[in-house]
Amino acid sequence: MSASTPPAPPRWRVRFQLYLTAVLALLALVAGSAVSWLNYRSASSQLIDSHVTQFDYAVSAAESRTEHLLAPVDATLQMLGGSALVTAGSLAARLEALPLLIRALRQDQRLSALYLGYPDGEFFLLRPLDSPDSRRLFMAPPDSRYLVQGIDQQDGQRWMQFVYLDEAGRVLYRQRLLSPPFDPRTRGWYQSAVRAAGQRILTEPYRFYTTGEAGASVAREIAPGVVAGADLSLQDLSRWLVRQPRISRSEIVLYDATSLRLLASSLPPQPDRHGLALPELGNQGSAAMAALARGPHPLGAYPVEVDGEPWRVVVRALPQTSYGPPLRLAVLVPEDELLAAARAEGARALLLTGILVLVVVPLAWWIAGRVSASLVELAGRARAIHALDFSPRPPLHSAIREIDTLAQSMDGMQATIGHFLAIGLALMREREPHALYDRLLAETLAAAEGAAVGLYFLDADRRQLLPAGGLIGEQRLILPALSLRSSLHDARARALETGRSQIEPLQPDSPVFDGLPPPVMALGRQGPSIRLCVPLVGHEGRGTGVLVLLFVHGQSLSHERQAFIEALAGLAAVAIDNQQLLSAQTALLDSLIRLLAGAIDAKSPHTGGHCQRVPVLLRWLAEAACEARQGPFASFRLTPGQWDALLIAGWLHDCGKVTTPEYVVDKATKLETLYDRIHEIRTRFEVLKRDADIDYWRGVAAGGDAAALGRTRDERHAALDADFAFVAACNTGERPLSDADLARLRRIGARTWQRTLDDRLGISHEEQSRLPAAGPLPATEPLLADKPGHRVPRPDGDGTAANRRRGFSMEAPDWLYDRGELHNLSVRVGTLTAEERYKINEHIIQTIEMLRQLPFPPHLKQVPDIAGSHHEHVDGSGYPRGLMQDDMSVEARMLAIADVFEALTAADRPYKTGQPVSEALARMRAMCERGHLDRDLFVLFVESGVWRRYAERYLAPAQLDAVDVAAVLAPPGDRTPATLR
């Protein structure tokens, strides 16, 4: 992951109150747990130390106990050194000393035997038989209590005798064996005692053969080569170990460190009676002893693991006060029992910790709630700012300094952003440049809390800064321009050049105040001041102007205030730039609209002013409606956007005429297309007249009566002249044609003439496609004809069905054009055929379709409907959509009034002359009565005098005649004479 990669957001979020409560509870839990753990560790250490100390005491006691066991035995051995047994040379002599040995055995019942070994290999031993098992083992008589085992030499032979004695020492039975294999000199106790040279020795412990008990031999050399010994049972030591205070499952063992043989323990021994060796430490059925036997056997205290359970072991060495094996005393204790008190104390501490947590949680919840309430409120205010809700709220205070500072900063940020956006919205709403500049100056001066403010813009040549306005308090200022060439070091020029704000300290005598308005000069001369020049940067990154503020003595310019002013200047620059761009686009759009309207008018010189004059009438009529304070239009008002839509519709209401053929728009005669075809008809009449002359001369040449032939010729000429004059009169369309006129046209058209040339020569491919195949020449043709070539078919997708799909109700003729001569001349009224009339009317469909294709902004979306409805009638009989009054907007009905009045009074139509205003208003009144025009708007049009204002500016003086306004406005059928000029 790169260093620039932002951290991923957390997967989950919690409330601050819950978070803080959890943290405090966790801290309490961790602190309590730590204290409990430390107490547990301390208690455990103390318990272990106490256990070790106690064991050390036990070791000392065991040492004393061992010495207590050995000391009497040693004393007995030393006593034997002063007896006759040392010098006795035979078994009989030694038997005499039995009372001494019996008394020693009776005094110390721990002794299993007393014996002496002599340098010549003789041996003397006294053993008590104090149990049936021992008597049975040695096959002694039932009353036997002691057994004497002696080895001596008689007659060069070694003999072993067994003497069984009763309780009183009397002999009960004797048994003698020859050559016994036993020689005391080969025994370890004898050899160790001889080496010890009079010191007490202790042999390696072993199990007594007769009793199965663990024991050891204590020996001492009492005379040179004479060693006295005693077998000492360790059963007493085991019983002493059992009596020692200890933990229930703990074990105390005494063992040989060399052979790991068990001497004594606090557990019952499990001897192997088939051998004399002591049991091994690991074969006593104790897992703890087995664990001790398996591992190393260092001295000290250390842990061991017994069947997965932790135990503690303390091993101490018994001091060796005599020759003998190294003995170890060990205590094994399970940790759970050793540290039970520590664990109980830890559990109590944890319990107290839990109680503390239970107390801390609600307290922490309450404290966190008090703390988080301010944060929740701040979060709500932040969300409000995010939602652009800057409604005032009461100040928020907190005892926590950081939260209080954050609250104050949040309130300041809310106020700053709210004020900034309010100013920005106010600037963006201003549509007029000067109103925008005035608003900017006022808002900047109020926000900056300065003394004066000025606004400058670069001229088109970027050579000087032109003032757009200034303000000191509520007084407007007229500021001088600044030439950039001659004032390169001026702070305004530097700000514009560097694109950074310039702060300039000023003294009262600074030349900056020279040439400024007197109020500013007087303000600056009062004391030190500061001038802040902030550049205005447009969307292209180029400086477009400078905003200048003056701060006088007592007014501060903080960093925050400067940043706010710079941000406001940036916003103002965008607003001004947008306003200028909008003004430029509006001007461009207006120019394009006027260009298109001019092109439409220029297409037909005879209607050159229609698209220019209708918007004037429309605007005046709309102004009259907006100024009305009573009547149907008392509440009628137009927004700036609606004004734009209305005037654009007025300018573009006939834009569809660009698709109307020019000859149709300007058609002055019935036979006119690109030229007036009456000349072709006249030529045919000339041909017929020439035929009459030819017939005359042919008759004369044939010898006919010249006078009669001349009269016939003249009659034919006169008839042809009269017929042509009639055709020509029909062609002008100046009067309606009757049925008789139409019948005469058909009779005249039935005349024939001879065509001797192919009529397919020299024509276009399209026209050829409309003509039938060429016939034989000469061809006889009617004088006035409706030929197939005169009919132009309508393109696919054009016609009544297509109109219906687009929402238009106009019925389209079958042919796009029908230029038939009789068809055109037979038009009863006017000069236009049905096809041409449709083509004229179709311009409104084209107007709507063309305007619908334009991406008008929302406030201009009504332009197509307004512009395309000026031929609709309020009774639904109009075109192209057959709308009723309620289906049309007031603006559309206004456009119909303006269009009709301009058309009636226009003097530039080739097919009519301009009507006087009285006739025009009379005709419009009639149109209102027929349901063509909105009567309320017509009344407003007349009463407001819009018609008079228009006539005085655009019509010939002769057209502004007397108008009987009362008669014009009278209800239908009423003509109250009253003339108002």
TrEMBL record:
GO cellular component, one term: membrane
Domain HAMP: start-end pairs: 369-422
Superkingdom of source: Bacteria
Membrane found in the keyword field: yes
Listed InterPro entries: Cyclic_di-GMP/3'3'-cGAMP_PDE, GAF, GAF-like_dom_sf, HAMP_dom, HD/PDEase_dom, HD_GYP_dom, Sensor-like_sf
Record bears the keyword ATP-binding: no
Listed GO biological process terms: signal transduction
Keyword set, alphabetical order: Membrane, Transmembrane, Transmembrane helix
HD-GYP domain ranges (all copies): 766-956
A single GO molecular function term of this UniProt record: phosphoric diester hydrolase activity
SUPFAM superfamilies named among the record's database cross-references: GAF domain-like, HD-domain/PDEase-like, Sensory domain-like
Basic and acidic residues compositional bias, start-end: 787-797
Chain positions covered by the region annotation Disordered: 767-805
UniProt-recorded name of the protein: Metal dependent phosphohydrolase
